[in-house]
Amino acid sequence: DGSFAYFADTPCQSIQKWQLSEADGWPVGEPEQFVDLRPQNLNPDGAVVDAAGNIWNAQWGAHRVAVYDPEGNFLDQITFPASQISCPAFGGANLSTLFVTSAATGVREPLAGQTFFKATEALGQAEHQVIL
Prior knowledge:
Layout: E1 4-9, E2 14-19, E3 32-36, E4 43-49, E5 55-60, E6 64-68, E7 74-79, E8 85-91, E9 97-102, E10 115-119
């Protein structure tokens, strides 16, 4: 709904949530921890929010995009044939196809560096503009 921005703090292994001003879209106050991935030793990277408010987060080194509900609870994961998954985005005719980029940096995997796609039951949304 545009009331929060999310960002991955990869070195700290957490996803942060920051409230945005209704008036002008600027961040308000300080960010809060949304998901702590240290216990699982996971490295969050790029993310996208679907129409239901769920966060789809690429997890570098884990072959996956993880899905979290608006409260930060783990819902599901989609795995891919490359370890360094970097950023998800919804596209396609009804924004239900998940496109995912990967990197080939420092790995020798046949599909590293490719872009993958997967049909989902979720619906994406048009990208919001955020002032940083």
